[in-house]
Prior knowledge:
InterPro entries: NAD(P)-bd_dom_sf, SDR_fam. Pfam families: adh_short. By secondary structure, the chain is mainly α. Helix content is 54%, strand content 10%. It has helices spanning 3-8, 19-27, 31-45, 68-87, 106-121, and strands at 51-56, 93-98. It has a two-stranded parallel ribbon. α2 crosses α4 (68-87). It is elongated.
Amino acid sequence: MCVGILFDNTTRKFYDYDPVESFDSANNVGFRNHYICSVYASRLMIPRKQGLIVTITSPAGMGYIFDVASGIGKAGCDKLASDMAVDLLNTGVLSVSLWPGAVKTEAVQEALLKCDNDNVSQ
């Protein structure tokens, strides 16, 4: 999800912003692409009888963090990893879900600085 949208919407309810923009921002990059890349990766790994597909997600799939659209995507990623593991059974390819915690990217740092500056100026 675009970090700016994520932080901008944390104080708003899901019904207060555009549902298409919200859902697509949260899920087109993460959830959708995890699925697409996993299909293509599986096609390469299965003939070799080895491989590991790691789906990056977070605890937001288990409980409310940030907003509804983000939670849907994270829960979907966890389910994706679990269901792929079933289909991949006995192929030599494994599928896991990984929750790495907060990742200190430039976008996250900028969003946090903006939040801090907004709080200071109030």
